[in-house]
Every structure is written in C-alpha cells, then in structure tokens.
Amino acid sequence: MRIFVTGATGFIGSRVVSNLLAGGHQVTGLVRSDKAASKLTDAGATAQFGSLEDPQSWLRAIENCDAVIHTAFDHDFNHFVANCEKDRRVIAAIGSVLKGSQRPFIITSGTAMGDDDSGQPAREQNFNPAHPNPRVASELEGQILLEQGIDVRVVRLPQVHNTERQGLISYYIPQAKEKGVAAYINEGRNAWCAANVDDVANLYVKVLEHGESGKRYHAVAEESISSRQIADVVAKGLGVPTASLKQEQAAEHFGWFAAFASMDLRASGEWTRQQLNWQPNGAGLLDDLRNMDYSALA
C-alpha cells in the first residue's frame, strides 16, 4: 500500500514509517525541513514538504495514496487549546481529499476520551463528545468524517515513552529538577496509563492493516501507574526529595502542568489487544524512567 504519514520524522511517526517500510509498504511523509526530508529519504521513503498550519499546500500528495496515518501534533502546551483546534482543521482538510473513497484514515487522540466518569479505566467503546479535554476536537471531527462515509479509525495514546521521552512526564522531570523536588498531589494515588513507543508504532500498523472503520483503539500496555510511583523514580534519578502538595498548591508549583498533575488517566487496552492480537513487550514506564540519562538535563 501507498501510505501518507504526517509527523513522519517525529517521536512516534518515525517508528511508524520504519514499520511500514519493513512491511513492504510505500511511504510518503510530511516534513518541515531539509534535515527531516533527508532523514526520511535515507530511510527509503518519499518526503513531502509542508506544515500543519497550511494543509492545503500538501493535500495533493494524498490523492495518490491508499491510506493516511496522522501522527503529527503541535505539543506546545502553552497553546494547547489552539493546537487542538489546529489538529481538527488538519483532520477536516485530509478528510476532504478522502471523501468518496474507502481509503483508511487513522487519526490520533488521547485515552482520556474513553473516560465515562464512572471511576473505571477509560475504554475503547466510550466516547464523550462533551469531554472537557480540548483534544476532544480531533475525535469530534473524525466523527463528522465517519458520518460522511470516510473510513476513520482512531488510535488513542497514553504516556508514550522510552528512555529519552515519556509523554507529559517529559515536562514534569525538568520542572522537578528546577524546583528541587519531585512533587505529587495529596497521596499521589491518581494514576496514568503508558506504553513503550515501539509498541505504539506497531499498533498503528495493525490498525491500518486489520482495524475497522469507526473503531477506537487504545495503545495501552500499562493501565495504571500512580503519580507517587513516578515521583519516587524521578526523585531518585535527579537526586531530589519527593513532596506531597495539597490541591490548592498545585497551580503555584506546577504552572500549566497543574491541570494534568492530579488527573487520573487510567485506561484499558484489553479490547485492543484482543481485536488486533497486539502484544506490547517493550520496557515499562518506570523502567524507562530508571534507565534514562538524568545528567542530560544539565
């Protein structure tokens, strides 16, 4: 198959591209720079220049492709709401090219979209269109396209990690170093789900090759890792103490990260594993946090 991939040289997208090429697919990847283009072509793919801000400039490259995998996202959390809206616009633009065809379109969201407020882990079958997380915009647009007959499939991400990056925790670690303390809220019982980046990349390919239109898939290898566990490992790595904060102290200590620090982001990936025979086997989040190079933060 001829696959168009956004975010093709990114943390997740670059590994998706590698898996696709290894599986015999042809790949065209969206890039922003000559350096990224060289990286992509050296891997055996084709580079298409463009940006998320101007999707009209690269949409024609999709016309000759058999499927689209959209992994790109602007991770500037100081403008999170605006970036979620930008993602919605990109999804709508890609969808405009795919109308009238049966070509799969895999979009990306977060596992929080599967939270039904029951206190149970988020699940693939759940979707709350009124969810307060701005990332809901991606799935709302995907639902519109689905109702227009487009083969939309959703991969929902947890904290995606290796020893170099760990999702939102990548922002927590330098903050802990700067503050001199690895903090958590109250007893640190709120928990997050996670998966190794190589396992996540493998899931995107499985969703492409074996997924179904309208289905949501959770890239979850570990369902529940408490914020206290994360803080303990980070504190040891940095050589700083841990500290419990009251909820009212969170905003002053964490800044924009306070919105995430007390969230419970547990999610199940059991259904996804059963449906696609996805067997994540990469290192766990705490192991990757233990094995990262904390001296590189200096």
Structural commentary:
The chain is an alpha/beta fold. 37% of the residues lie in helices and 19% in strands. It contains eleven helices and twelve strands. It has helices at residues 13-22, 34-43, 80-98, 136-147, 169-179, 197-210, 227-238, 250-254, 258-261, 270-276, 285-291; strands spanning 2-6, 26-31, 46-49, 67-70, 105-110, 152-157, 159-161, 182-185, 191-196, 216-218, 222-226, 242-245. The strands form three sheets. The chain has a seven-stranded parallel β-sheet, sandwiched between helices. Strands 7-9-11 form a three-stranded mixed β-sheet. Helix 3 packs parallel to helix 4. The longest helix is centred in the N-terminal third of the chain and has 19 residues, at 80-98. The radius of gyration is 19 Å and the shape is globular. The relative contact order is 0.14.
Which key phrases capture this entry?
three-stranded mixed beta sheet, globular, single chain, seven-stranded parallel beta sheet, 11 helices, 19% strand, 298 residues, alpha/beta
List the helices and strands and how they pair.
Blueprint lengths: L1 E5 L6 H10 L3 E6 L2 H10 L2 E4 L17 E4 L9 H19 L6 E6 L25 H12 L4 E6 L1 E3 L7 H11 L2 E4 L5 E6 H14 L5 E3 L3 E5 H12 L3 E4 L4 H5 L3 H4 L8 H7 L8 H7 L7
Parallel strand pairs: 1-2, 1-4, 2-3, 4-5, 5-6, 6-10, 7-9, 8-12
Antiparallel strand pairs: 9-11
Q: What structural class should be given to the helix and strand makeup?
A: alpha/beta
Query: Major sheet, described briefly?
Result: 7 strands, parallel
Mean pLDDT: 96
Radius of gyration: 19 Å
Q: Estimate the global geometry from the Cα principal axes.
A: globular
Distance between the termini: 44 Å
Tally of separate helices: 11
Instruction: Give the SSE order as H and E letters.
Output: EHEHEEHEHEEHEEHEEHEHHHH
Order the strands across the largest sheet as they lie in space. Answer: 3-2-1-4-5-6-10
Care to count the β-strands? 12
Overall helicity: 25-40%
Q: How much beta, percentage-wise? A: 15-25%
Low-pLDDT sequence parts: none
